[in-house]
């Protein structure tokens, strides 16, 4: 069976009521996982909303026996109306405990603060139920084939690796305050899908295929209830021939206000090889050059955002299997024995390393254990990781938010 494009086209909403906060819910009353799918967390990325609507309509019209519940959610409604990435600030960058506590307490400083509060109002009753699978649908300003991103914890892998598209590790660790990073730290599952370029009509199709495959992988759907499942898998596989199965982020180029105007040189696409020293963009200071050889990821061909581009490199499946075994056996107790490494004096879940050693072999060992977040502190490097425990928790900053508080249905 082959697939053709169908369902709602990739169109932006004509007005405030075009997309409610909760796009829809579907359940057949059978016990199972809660899956929350978010579209348009960035307002200029509407394709995910169309894909979510297609899948909800398909399930409803067919009376499909879904296990658990699927909830479709609109991300940045106000930016969506204005067809902009964000209104005041990036909605996918300030999901930190301190900011969440401020917003829950009622201190709303930006349009995106209000969006965050409304999203939390939708999420809170679901978080109280138990583990939630969050799927965040995005698109890119530059040309791209589909790929997924996840925080490097084991519970995310089955969902991400169920798709025949590249998996990018480390993006959630180098970007501060992402929504999925925050929810993952609470013990939930979170995978983001970059479905293609914003206005490419195929992006809706790719998102639809990815969502159906992930619902099967999550245990929400049985494969026999998706008779065209093989065709959806083939759709994604066909555009990713020759791509690495897994890669990791090595470098993030941060754009500061004083760097603007930042302009990517034309023609860069995701997974394109760039050489160390190659000019890839320009800013107020002059040419911007790649700091190392690797694969170009997420070049910024839009006016908003402080991520200029990323550099990635392939990771072998063998490395993934080794890392899974090390974590399952809890061999991270050996980390303090690595050369030049010691426990952080104040935080038990952090390690301090000598940068002269850690930048080479030791850094790779840290990655195997999931320690992908690294920051400089004086003359040392501090490594940390996402919360590995699978049991969800409700943090103190969310305890004050009542169920349903600030939920907006229309």
Q: How many β-strand runs?
A: 18
Report the biggest beta sheet as strand number plus sense, adding barrel if it closes: 11 strands, mixed
- Taken as a percent bin, the fraction of beta residues is 15-25%
The percent of residues in helical segments reads 25-40%
**Adjacency order of strands in the biggest sheet:** 1-3-2-4-7-5-6-8-14-13-10
| Overall average pLDDT | 89
Spatial gap, N to C terminus: 38 Å
Radius of gyration equals 21 Å
Structural class, from helix and strand content? alpha/beta
Number of helices: 12
- H/E series: EEHEHHHEEHEHHEHHEEEEEEEHEEHEEH
What overall geometry do the principal axes of the alpha carbons give?
globular
Q: Which spans of ≥5 residues are poorly predicted at pLDDT below 50?
A: 6-16
Question: What would you say this structure looks like, in words?
Answer:
- This protein is α/β, with parallel strands linked by helices and 410 residues long.
- Helices cover 29% and strands 24% of the residues.
- It is built from twelve helices and 18 strands.
- It has helices spanning 47-62, 77-82, 97-104, 111-129, 157-160, 171-174, 179-185, 202-217, 229-238, 317-328, 355-368, 396-399; strands at 22-26, 30-39, 67-74, 132-140, 147-150, 167-169, 189-197, 246-254, 263-264, 273-274, 279-283, 286-289, 294-297, 307-314, 341-343, 351-353, 373-377, 380-384.
- The protein has an eleven-stranded mixed β-sheet, sandwiched between helices. A four-stranded antiparallel β-sheet has the order 15-16-18-17. Strands 9-11-12 form a three-stranded antiparallel β-sheet, with no helix packed on it.
- β11 (279-283) and β12 (286-289) form a beta hairpin.
- α1 (47-62) crosses α8 and α8 packs across α9.
- The longest helix has 19 residues, at 111-129.
- The two termini are 38 Å apart.
């Amino acid at each position: 069976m082959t697939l053709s494009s169908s369902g709602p086209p990739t169109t932006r909403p004509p007005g405030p009521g075009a997309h409610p906060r909760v796009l829809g819910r579907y359940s057949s009353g059978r016990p199972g996982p809660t899956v929350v799918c978010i579209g348009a967390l960035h307002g200029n990325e509407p394709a995910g909303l169309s894909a979510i609507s297609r899948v909800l309509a398909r399930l409803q019209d067919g009376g499909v026996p879904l296990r658990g519940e699927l909830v479709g959610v609109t991300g940045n409604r106000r930016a969506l109306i204005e067809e902009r990435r964000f209104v005041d600030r990036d909605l996918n960058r300030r999901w930190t405990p301190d900011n969440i506590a401020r917003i829950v307490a009622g201190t709303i400083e930006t349009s995106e603060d209000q969006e965050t509060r409304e999203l939390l109002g939708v999420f809170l009753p679901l978080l109280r139920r138990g583990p939630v699978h969050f799927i965040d649908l995005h698109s890119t300003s530059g040309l791209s084939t589909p790929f997924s991103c996840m925080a490097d914890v084991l519970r995310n892998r089955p969902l991400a690796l169920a798709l025949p598209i590249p998996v990018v590790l480390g993006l959630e660790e180098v970007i501060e305050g992402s929504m999925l990073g925050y929810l993952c730290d609470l013990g939930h599952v979170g995978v983001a899908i970059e479905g293609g370029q914003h206005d490419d009509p195929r992006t809706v199709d790719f998102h639809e295929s990815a969502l159906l495959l992930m619902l099967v992988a999550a245990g929400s759907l049985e494969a026999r209830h998706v008779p065209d499942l093989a065709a959806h898998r083939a759709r994604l596989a066909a555009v990713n021939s020759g791509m690495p199965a897994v890669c990791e982020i090595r470098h993030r180029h941060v754009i500061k206000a004083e760097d603007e105007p930042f302009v990517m040189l034309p023609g860069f696409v995701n997974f394109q090889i760039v050489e160390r020293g190659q000019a890839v963009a320009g800013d107020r200071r002059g040419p911007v050059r790649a700091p190392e050889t690797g694969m170009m990821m997420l070049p910024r061909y839009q006016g908003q955002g402080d991520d200029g581009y990323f550099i990635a490199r392939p990771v072998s499946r063998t490395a993934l299997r080794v890392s899974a075994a090390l974590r399952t056996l809890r061999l991270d107790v050996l980390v303090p024995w690595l050369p030049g490494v010691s426990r952080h004096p104040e935080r038990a879940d952090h390690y301090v390393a000598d940068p002269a050693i850690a930048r080479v072999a030791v850094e790779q060992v840290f990655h195997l254990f999931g320690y992908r977040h690294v920051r400089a502190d004086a003359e040392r490097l501090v490594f940390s990781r996402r919360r590995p425990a699978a049991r969800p928790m409700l943090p103190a900053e969310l305890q004050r938010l009542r169920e349903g508080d600030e939920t907006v249905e229309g």
